[in-house]
Amino acid sequence: MAGQPGFDRRALLRGGVAATAAGAIGLSTAGAAHAAPSAGTARPLRASRGKAAEPRIYTTEEWGARPPSQEIVIEDHVPTFIVVHHTADPGNSEDYSLEHAKQICRDIQDHHMDGNGWSDTGQQFTNSRGGFRLEGRHQSLAVVRGGTQHVQGANVGGHNSEVIGIENEGLYTDVDVPAALWDSLVQLVAWIASQYGTDLKNIQGHRDFNSTECPGNVLYGRLQELRDAVGRVLGVSSPSADEVLTWPLLKPGAVGAQVRAAQHLLRGKGYKVPVDGVFGTDTKRAVAELAERHCVERHTCAAAHHNTADETGYLGSDIWPLITPSSRTAGGEDTDDAVRALMRTSRRSTTLPADGRLTQTDWKRLLS
Description:
The chain is of the alpha/beta class.
């Protein structure tokens, strides 16, 4: 199954195999597949939005890519989300040269094809610490130029028909990105958003879809700044932080009201965990069992050759929907206890429906 386009790379990490953070492939293949993109059919941009210039992007041919082992899947729709990743390479290389950037692409492709059994590189684009932008999966550049189609990649589990992924070289859990990488990322995202007419609130991070630290706390924390910068390039207003609701990422060792609420909700699902606001061993085990039960793959941020973090038991965007009921009565008293705890600590003013119903948006507001 590892050779199929829908295989999730992180399933392989159970055995200790390392891969780039651009991996997790979803099974969705909605839309027709074609051998090549349609030419000269650019999607019209909204009249109020400017058009960003195409930045210099080095093609797969220019960095010496191997040919894909299977036909590239091109879908007849545009991607909804632009997703930011990091490679999670702990070295954070100070080699900012073009040749180094090309070597990164070759290493990633070799690992994805030879180590994971994939047909090609997982992400559509790679962005180096030196500020060089490179095509990742074959045909990605030509398809974005067309503006009407989408190369299905392998970078967000369960969502690869919806997302176009950018892999940023480095590890950004504690340190910031180099200025050159940031500037090149802004230019690349602005151009992609310009081509596809992407809603700027849909510039998101990998953790907005899967339970992973990717793209690192620091880079993830700058996503609103990225939306603002892209908005300035395109001459449009970017959404405020309050308009971009996301699920929190809870990791073993975390403490606080969000953890306490998660424990109540896990108890409502039948898991025997303490309600102490501490993400300890029992809570981690319950989250891991829940993920296993629902076939949610474990996500391990790792670079091409370095296994850097075990993300087993992380509670993020693909786990919260499994434990948050659609009403305050579902799940018994534990659900209501979770709601009350969050109402006392939420930073947002949240008014819940009088009938007790709870949408995913309601839960995100409560948890923020």
